[in-house]
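Throughout this review, each integer encodes one residue's backbone shape. One record appears below.

===
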Amino acid sequence: MMLEPPVGAAADEGLALPSAPAGEFCGVPSLHDALLARLRDFVVEGNLAPGARVPERLLCERFGVSRTPLREALKVLAAEGLIELLPNRGARVRQLGPEELVALFDMMGGLEALAGRLACEKIAEPAFADIERLHHEMYGFYLRRDLRGYFACNQAIHDRIVEAADNEPLRAAYANVAGRLRRARYAANLDANRDRWGEAMREHEAILDALRRRAGDELGDILFRHLRNKRRAAAPRENAPPPPDRSDG
């Protein structure tokens, strides 16, 4: 399939905050989950640079909450590996060092390669059809330059392959590493030096084709290379010097 190269699309690394719908967090029972989801997306989508301080006051204004629920949500993101809590100094976006970035992406590549091989042995046709549907939805987002929608489908495809492997220890290990790499995987599509987004889409075409043919060894190799390429694309942003430490009061 011929792929139309996309233009870059993402929020800047500054603190310009998009507006939220009025009353977004009025439902008290869902306050924590809704806030957590929006805050997680805010960090993953690169609105704050790796190593940047979390601007609590601005985020409280953005989401219409006090600092108590915001800090509770930050604790969850810290457990997921996205945020680093600083004793008596707030929090900052967790920046992965060069060696840690290589190690985590290689581990993820190994886990996904194993999942691909097992999925080819075990996947049922309805599960494959679901992955194929997600792939076509993802391609639609790609053509519309909708990186948020693309990334959601992309992650769902990888998750479905792991689920199809039907191996609980593998699933647990994958979930742990995936949370720590979620922001870096998103950032890989923002590579300004080459068309990583288009390259990733082409790799997903090969992933779907190998899974369709139940070619386990081939799929494993493709998935491992796919993660290696993501790491190379993510490294310049992840390893850039952190921005100056600014307190928001």
User: Anything to note?
Assistant: The first helix runs from residue 31 to 44. Strands lie at 83-85, 91-93. The chain has a mean pLDDT of 85.
